[in-house]
Amino acid sequence: MIYKYRKESEELTVLRQLNLRLKLSEKDSHYFRSLEKGFIGEKMFDELVDNISCNWFIINDLFLEVNNSFIQIDKVIIASKKVLFLK
Q1: What is the rounded distance in angstroms from the CA atom of residue 35 to the CA atom of residue 18?
Q2: Whole-model pTM?
Q3: 3-class DSSP state for residue 18?
Q4: pLDDT category, 12, cuts 50, 70, 90?
Q5: How confident is the model over 20-57, as pLDDT tens digits?
Q6: Contact status, residue 29 vs residue 16, Cβ threshold 8 Å
């Protein structure tokens, strides 16, 4: 069961809209392409894992604050005897 679905980040959404309306700097364009490729890869991985019919709890894009820093875990899979953290 998927507890939290993956959503496109606000940053990617904004950069996508800006890219449609104006020419991004080379640095911003590279960053935008990186974010987009990463999101596409995450969605492809979701399709592989999320459709396996097991009694798993799945949390996508878990953000945690540790020592005043934020970390993102792409996918957490909670099974009956294991917890998998995929980054």
Answers
A1: 14
A2: 0.74
A3: helix
A4: very high
A5: 999 999 999 999 999 999 999 999 988 888 777 678 88
A6: no
Residues paired with 51 in a beta bridge: none
Nearest Cα neighbor of 4 from 82, 65, 62 is: 62
Radius of gyration of the chain (CA): 16
55 phi/psi in degrees, rounded to 5: -85, 65
Q: What is the DSSP string of 1-63?
A: -EEE-----HHHHHHHHHHHHSPPPHHHHHHHHHHHHHHHHHHHHHHHHHTS-SS-EEEEEEE
Helix (H, G, I), strand (E, B) or coil at 87: coil
